[in-house]
Amino acid sequence: MSAFLRRFIDNKKYIFLILTVMLVMGFLFGLFEYGYCQEIIKKNLQSLFYLNNEKYMNQYQLYIIQSGLYILICTYLSSSYLGHFGILFLTFLKGVQISFSLCYVFSIIQIDFLTVLLIIIEIILELILIFALSLMCFHLSLYVTLISYYIDQTFNMKNIINYRLNCLIATLIIFSLSLAFRVYVIPLF
Q1: What pLDDT digit, counting tens, does each position of 128-141 carry?
Q2: Phi-psi region for residue 185, left (φ > 0), alpha (ψ -120 to 50) or beta?
Q3: What is the pLDDT averaged over residues 57-72?
Q4: N or C: which end of the chain has fewer CB within 10 A?
């Protein structure tokens, strides 16, 4: 098991593949369950996009709170030896949120090229945020599992803290770019 975990951690493409599969499964599950879901769940998960349209109600504060909690919880789970399961679940939920938001937008807004372009750019920014944060936190959680159970080695706290700070800085930069796009670019159209 130790050799398997070591190879798995060393090859981040496997971690990327697992996160991609969970995101796609969440997306497909969200497309299927959108019509059968309770209204309160729909209300909380369908406000991912920020659009300049009178029919669409933008919920900028809810997006900030949800993304801030996502960053905080993923960062917390990265220090746990079972945190990678929680990170997979959060990635699944982000896929559900993307599909719920798409279903909601396409049901109330008339689709044109500019709206589709803005939605695609917002999805790309959200995917970059999800993969940057989840990949680093998943990797760190697997490393904690490897050190805790399979290798007789102590943690190098300086390297772990440095890795977590790099992860947090990269995530906050991507999140700031996403917020800036929502506040400054989208209202121009």
Answers
A1: 999 989 988 888 88
A2: alpha
A3: 87
A4: N
